[in-house]
Every structure is written in C-alpha cells, then in structure tokens.
Protein 1
Amino acid sequence: MLSTHNTKNIASVLFDLDGTLLDTADDLGAALNHVLSQYGKPQVAAQDYRPIASDGALGLLNLGFGDAIKQYDYEVLRKQFLDYYQENIAVHTCLYSGVAELLQHLETNEIPWGIVTNKPEGLTKLLLPHYPEFSQCAVMVAGDTLTKRKPDPAPILYACKQMSVDHQQCFYVGDALRDIQAGNSAKMTTFVAQWGYILSDENCQSWQADHIIAAPLDLISFIG
C-alpha cells in the first residue's frame, strides 16, 4: 500500500461525509425504525444498521424490510424515510473525534478541503450548517450534483476543478469501497477511513487504497 504520490506536496483534501466526517448512523437508523414502525415491523438495532448507514435509504430499507420490501411501493417507503430524516437530521449526528482538529490543521496550513458525498444535495445542504466546523468547506459535491456519482470519479474531479487544484495533488478520504475506487480512478492519493461504516468482516486491504488510517488525526502525518 505504498503510494507513489508525494504526499507532502498536497494541494487539497476531499472527504466523504457519512462515516468519514460525520457519524450520521443514529439519525438514519431512527428514520428507518420510524418507517418500520408504520408497518408493524421489528426495529433494527444500532449494531445492525451502523455498518449499512452510508448506503442511504435504499440500503437501510432493504436491511429493515428484507425480502418483504417487494410487497411495498419502494418510492412510498423512501419518501417516508426521507421525510422523517429531513425533520430529524441532526438530532444524534456528530463529528467523529479528531475531525474538528484535523479541519483546523488544514485551515491553519491553508490547505483547502471539501466534501464529495453520495448523499442527496438537498439533505447535505440541510445538514452541514448544523456544524460550524464546516464553515470553511471550499466545495461540496453531492450524489445528485452531477449525473454521475461515486464510484465514478466525475464528482471528485469536478470538486478539484471548482477549487482550481491539481487532482493528482489531492487526497481523498472515505469509508467505502466506492470512495477508494473513485479516488483511485481520479489518480488521487486515497485513504480508507477505518473508523467509518465498515462491516466487521470487510477486507479493506483489498480496496487498493494508498493508505488505511485508524483515526482522523492520523492524516496529519501525511500532510507534514
């Protein structure tokens, strides 16, 4: 996993959002359990929904309903999920430990940073203002900002263009295989956020990231 990139000559850092900067699992899980309760279905425990949290409404509803989801109108379920989530978007959500300090380090060293997420733009714009630590975010590209989303590299390359930085001198940090695939396709230095929503039996080594880091502040040693 040794990178051929010069990690000290870094122009910018881009992050995934859910499971990388913000722990959004409990608010997403609450939305899932709200929908399940409407249909008399059993609630899903946090330990079960947490690893699926970054898969969004589709992944969570499939988890909760299982094969029975075929008996329902998925679009109705999705609307119920998103309506509840939108109304309760920042009840339990918090920054991961070390994220505030990492962002402050980047800002102090005048390294621009941004967010590239598959979360819908409307929800992302609703969520980010709850956290003043994100006030210096240089760019935000969401799952529906473009016609393509991760694992396609287009959103990451678009973010770099918006920041006027060389994508090959950019880090991309994320907690899902699609993040690493997108970053690698864009020829960026990629980092697995091991603290995020990763299944216990998932082999992150196989994702072919340049680096795997256990905590947000571990990124600082690659910046210098």
Protein 2
Amino acid sequence: MSYGRPLSFNPDEAVHAAMQLFWAKGYAGTSLQDLLQAMGLSKSSFYQAFDSKQALFARCFDCYCRWRSARMRASLNQSSSAWEFIENVFWAVANGAESELERRGCLLMNTASEFGQRDRVVVELVSSGMVCFEAVFIEAVQQAQTEGSIACDRDPHAIASFLVSSMSGLRTMVKAGMRHSQLSNIVKNILYSLN
C-alpha cells in the first residue's frame, strides 16, 4: 500500500492554525478553502494528512481542550492557594472582555451550541472536553477544602461541574458583548456561591 510522499510541513503548526480558524468562525463557517489558506496546504496535502474536515476539527478540538486544561493546571500549580486560582480563572475571563481571544468565547461551548445533539461524534468530543476542565477544578476544589476556603462537606465533583458551566457561560457572555460591570457582578456571585 502506498502512503504518498512524506509530509513537508509541521502538522502541529497546521492544526494550531486550523484551531484558530474554527474557534473564530465555527465549523460550518470555515470552508475548506479557508483551511487550506490558513494552514498553507494544497488540497492533496490536506487530505493526505487529515483525511477530512471533520477529522481535522476533532483533532483541533482535542488540541484546544488540552491547551486550555494545561494552562489551567499550570495556573493552579503556580497559585499561592486553590482559592486564588479559582478567583483568577473567573476574573481573567471577565477582565479579558476587551481581548480578541476572549471575545471568541469558548470553542467547547461554541461547538456545543453549533451542533447541539445532531452529531454523536461531536457530543462525545464536547463531553470529553468537559471532563478535562472538570478534572482541574476537582483538584482545585479538593485543595481548597484542605486549605479551608471551601467547606469539606460539599461535593468536589458537583462544584467542579458548576465551575465548568459557569466558566463556559461567562465566556459566552463575553462573546456576546456583555459589559464588564455585568461580568464582574456575575463573577462575584459565582465566587460567593462557593462559600
């Protein structure tokens, strides 16, 4: 069986470029021509490396979730306390309302909104992405309970699910153009609910 010529480009860089495009324009809004231009590929190279637009999207989605969760975990490890980490996550989203990156929303929630329940593969991607983010928050909540900033009788898994949905919702509100004062009030209420 012939596997074609060796790849003459960096697949990780190409995936990153495609991820940025999907994140900004959505799956349906991103054409094959958009992808070829952003990735610097010919159509034959694209199909040799990624098989299809859907397969590339799945790879980009996984890349996004691993990137976001790795940033969160690094922030948790560098914070002086788990509570500081939780605060920083939410204030960073609210304070980033003027950032082009934050105005894109969350690729995970953008994807969930775009596809709904129509595509089983996408539903599984969204579910696995939620698990990645929840895992970091579970660790943070358990650490906060040890430190005494969150009550020990509360379920870390339930709180982590709440934090993921709150973070995703906040990113969606940033994308919708909500004012910083409104975002600040939401953050204060999210944090207040943990006490």
Protein 3
Amino acid sequence: MVLAALSDPIDLLLVDDEPDFLEPACRFFQRQGYRVVAAANAEQAIAVQANQHFHVAIIDQNMPGMNGLELLPRLCNEDPDLKVIMLTGGGSIGSAVEAMKRGAVDYLSKPFGLDELDHLVRRVSKAVTLERENIHLKRQLADQNRPKPLIGNSQGIQEVKRLIGRIAPSDKPVLILGESGTGKELVARAIHAQSTLADKPLVVINCAALPESLLESELFGYEKGAFTGAVDAKPGLFEIADGGTLFIDEFGELAGGLQAKLLRVLEDGSMRRIGSTKERKVKVRLIAATNRDLNQEVAAGRFREDLFYRVNVLSISIPPLRERLDDIPLLVHHWLGEDWTLGPGVVELFRVSRWPGNVRQLINALERAKILADKNIIEIDNLPSELRRAAGHDVDAVGEHEPRVGDAIPLELLSHRHVLEVLKRNKGNKTKAAKELGIARRSLYRILDHLAAKDGNQVASSE
C-alpha cells in the first residue's frame, strides 16, 4: 500500500545491523518522501548525528557492541528534539517499557511490515510537524507582541511617550483617544510592554470588525449548545486574557447590551459565558481605544455614562499627523530605510497634505510608491492621486522641482494653514518664517497678500 506523500520533509535515521532489513527499508522510505540516512551500528549512528539533524530515528534494539537501549540516550542527549522508535524482539514487553523510560516515543515488535512501520513513523512525524508549527506560532506571537517604536520628536508625541511611562505600571483601565490611523494599537502595545503584565498575554479585538452577536461570543465565550453551531464550549477573550491585558479597539462601537456586560466585568471581574448560569472570575487590565468623542456619545445617549467613567480612569490622546508635521521626515526615514530617497517636491507635498488617514495613510502611500518607483527614488507621480489632488497638485503633472530660496513658489504647493502656522510659530517674523518655508521673503508677502485678499485676513507685520 502506497501512502500519500509527506507534506513536510522528514529527516529519518535508520539504525540496524541487518542488511536484509536496512537496505530495502532505506529504499522504501525514500520512495515515501523521507530524507533517509542508514547506519549499520551504533557507532555509525553517533558519527552521522554529529554532523546532521534528524527528526525521527528508528533503532533496532539487538545490535552487536552498543545495543539500541544504550544508543537511545546517547542520541537523545545530543538532540533532545529527536523522536526515537525502538524495534524490539517479538513479545519483549519488558524491553519496550525500558526503551520508553529511556526516551523512546514508541516501539514496534518484530515481525512487522514496512507499511506498518511507515504508519508509525508518520504518526510520530505529525508530532514533529506540530512542534514546528508551535515554534513558528510562538515566534509570530512574540513578533506581534513586541512593541514597535513610537516615531517622532514633536511635542505631542513626546507627551504620549511620557504618559505611557507613567500609566503603564498601573493596573487601572486606560482609554486611548485618537483619529483612525494615528497608532492607537501601537500605544496599547507599548503600555502592555512597559507594564508589570508584560510577560502575560496581550489579547486584541476590534469591535468594528464583528457584528454584535459574534462580538459577544468572542468576548465572553459560550457553552456547548448555547446556540445553533455551538458544538463545543469555547472560552472568551476575557478568559484567555485572564491575568494579562485585553485591548478593545473601536471601543465606541460597543452596543448597549455589551456595554452593560462589560461594565460588570470591570466592576468585580464577574462574567458568564453565553448559555451558562455559572459565574466566572477574571482579572484583566482593559485598554480601550476609540476615534469617537465619547463625551458626545454619552450626551446623545449612545454610550453608558457609568462605563465611560469606569474606563476613562487614565487616558492618552494621540495627536493627528497634521498636528505633528515635523515628524513626517522621521516617519518616512523609518519606513523607507537608508536605501530610498525622495524626489523633488515630495517632502513639501507631504507637509501640505491634510492626512485624514494619519500615519496609516502615510505608510500606505509609501508602500504604494515603493512598488511604482524606479531606482529607489520616490517621485510625486508615484504617490496616490488622492494625496496629490488633496495637496492641490495636478495629478497629471510630474517632475516639479523642490522650491529653493529665491524661487517664486506656486501657491498650490503650500496650504494656507501651513503658511499661517509657520508664521505663528515664528511669532509673526516673516524673515524667519520665509526661511523655514524655504522661500524668498517677497514670495511670502505675495502669499499673505493673496490670503488677505481672499479671506479678508490681516496678518500682523513683524520683521
């Protein structure tokens, strides 16, 4: 009987002193897709293992010199991950038990067919595959939970970093406020990483991604038979996060019924799975994030006032990207790395954009531009058309030059608000403002005259 090919390659070591078994067994397992190495005695097996890793070893117990029971611990000590199958004499239960005590994962008594041995090896190989997947998932989880740095030196981001350091050691709930794309989950992960619960689980859920019924079962779990399709009991995320941190993104999207259940958990740690009358106790630190104004939601009756005050013990507000324009070069450098450069006009376009999608929009624009760019140089025409259009660019025009001091700068390259903000930052000093904007002072005068004529504004003059 020929079994299906292996999904993952398995390195197999065959150790037996009988050529009549070893040679045909070696060919058989090679046909099945194994990577096979044969050894005629224990000494050869030890020498082979010194230079190669094996997933599974098949060892004959009765060999001249060092027998299988003596070889077994030698191989396992050298490689604790090795799975060993011992071939024992017919009816020798005592030796099989001894082999298991010394580290074998299974045994097979002679006589047997190669198909039977293959079935056993495949069963052991599944354990190898599961261990591989487990290691991979743990690494993925570690990478996901490793907090990424908060990029920026602006006053707003410096304040966010300061608050994280002060808030993290507490076990109180935290409310993170900010527009979409500002990095609320990034802040939540930083809080968890700097907390006393850093070695405990951090569980993340997005309320906007799930309908109310599914969200409830995800948060609180359910018992077998609680509803159609509940064929087994399932713990909720509160139970999974027990002892650690639960981050609920888009917290303002919670429906009224879920708000009441969540309030109960926050008040005394009590919860019930769907379909259960049994109360469970959990201890979870809650971090919630929302882009909604919860004060307005409370006033409109869409959000429970008591839950709002329960969660809003400690809060952090993340500034939008348009309020931290000086951080854009740092963000761009972080996401692009050393090998990329920006073409003429790109920096100024970034600075005059409104960024409704904030840092997430910037990252997406950079990722798109990297795909379309030539020679690792990002040009204006590599950027999304909606970004160029929102910044006042003709989406069909390409190759604009970076403005230099003395140039007559097109008005569309500068947002009115940006000019006024720079002027305000320099306390009305037009010479300093023009230098920061990278334009001639007379160009700034023309821009201000245009604004005054358009909006009726008078800008105080200060040299």
Protein 4
Amino acid sequence: MSRVLFPNIAAYQQEWLDVGDGHQLYLEQSGNPDGIAVVYLHGGPGGGSSKNYRRYFDPEKYRIILFDQRGCGRSKPSPSLSHNTTSHLISDIETIRKHLHISQWLVTGGSWGTTLALLYGIKYPERVLAFILRGIFLGTTAEYDWLYTQSGAAGFFPEYYREFIEQRPDIKSASILQGYYDLLTGNNEIAAIAASKAWCLWELRLSTIEHHHIEPHHITDAHQALCMAKVSSHYFVNKCFVAEDFILTAIEKIKTIPAIILHGRYDMVCQMRHADKLVQAWPNAQLQILPKAGHGGFETQTIDGFCKAADTMANFIAEQGSKK
C-alpha cells in the first residue's frame, strides 16, 4: 500500500537565527521535541523550505528541523548573494546543530539539498547518524550542461527549451547560464523578474511527470522565483564553489554512514546515472529507483519512498541507540 504524507502539523518553535555576515536564517522545529533529530535541506539553491517537508516524518518519532538557507525564502535579507557560498551554507548547518544542542542527527534533503547534505557529512561525519537523499545532484559540469545547454534535457523538451532561450532575447552571452546570471544580477529590475520566471518555468516543466501543461501563469510568487533564479544562477556560474568531482573523491569520509537514496527513473533535472555512480562508490548506501517518478519531491512514488525511508531510519536509529 502506498504511503501518503503525514497530516499537517504546526511548528512548535520558529525563530530567525543570526549566522553573521548580516544574515538571519528562518529556522523552525516541529514534531516531538524529544524525538530523533532530523534536518531537511531544501533544494534550489534558493528554493526555500516548505511546510510539507515536515510531513515526510512521523511527528511522534521525530524532532523535525527545517530552515531557509541564507539569502532565500523567509531568511533575511532575501534574495541575497552577499557572503553566500557553499562553505557558508555548510557552516550554517553546523551553527544550527550547535544552537539546538543536538549531538547527532539524521541528515536529509532533496536535489541541491543532497549536495549540501553530502558536503556537510564529508566535513562533519561524526555528527551524522544517517542520510535520506532524494534526487542526487553532485555539482559537476556534466549536470550544469545537462540543464542549460542544447545537448542535454533540451533534447527531451525542445519546445520548452526554445521558450527558455527565446523569452530572453536580451541575453548577450554565448552561455545561457552566464546570460541569465547577468540579467538576474543586473540593474534592470523588470528584466530580472521576467528572467526569474522563465528560469523557474523551465525547471518546473522538467521536474514532474505527474503534471502536464505547466504554463507561465503557474509561476505566481515573484519573490520566490527571484530567490530561486538569482541564487541558483549565482551558484551554478561558480560551479557551486566546489571542485569538480569533489564529492566522489571525498566519499571515503562518509562510507561507513548508512544512507537511503531515492531517485526517479525519469528525473529530467538530475539524471539517475549520477545517483548510480555515487552508490557504486558508497558501500553503505542503498539506491531505491522510483520506476514512475521524476524529480519532484511530492510525486506519488516519491512520497511513498521517502515516508517509508524515514520510518526505516527511525527504527534503525532506535535499534542502534538501544545497543549502546
């Protein structure tokens, strides 16, 4: 029987945590204050968290921690590229752990959140009980090329890709990615808003196989779109501030930590071959291929797989704790 999301729950604590450099992170907790600590890392970069991420986890078993990464969502200022790099975000995660007096936690995330989770684990392996990762993104040139050049996802969605590049005739750069970044960070606010909506529409159209005919009017939140596009393009033109193949090279540091990795067979944002490559290098990771899912976090099989993985990890962590 397929699992559905847990019922809606309210956060029992919300705050804005000062992490320096003029940034304050939106941070919330829900579920059981005495439960297993779990942090969910949202995608993007710049996507912001959703209250529905709380619903992957049994609120009786888990102390659920969500936050908006610096420069996006409800964090302040937003959108902001100032002092905003991958190493800043990893430090922010560790600052949150210390602030909440958590010794170890389950680290979970989706898409760009998997990149951050892996990098955090590589830097702080002793703080991670286990991982649940959905839609692997390793931050490599092949992945940027897949998303933003003619030779990748454009081959599956040629009409959408034409819209993606034609809606921005004012792009001067030979590189679509660089051209969008220039528009999004330029002085023309109207052009930046239009570019951000086109950017988000392209990714949204690639993200799910359960919803069709996604049109420009579906991008309704201009602030969210600007955060997503501006922060994402900032990270991608800078190769996510990570050396090529760094995660696979450093996987040794987390090879003993258990992980459940979920990946949609038809994920057109993050290709499954990267998840497969990761698992081949990580003996303690188990890849669960979702046969009728794409990239979206709330597709039917993804919800089923994630909720089951969260239950599996709760039992595993409780078992490990009883052995100590």
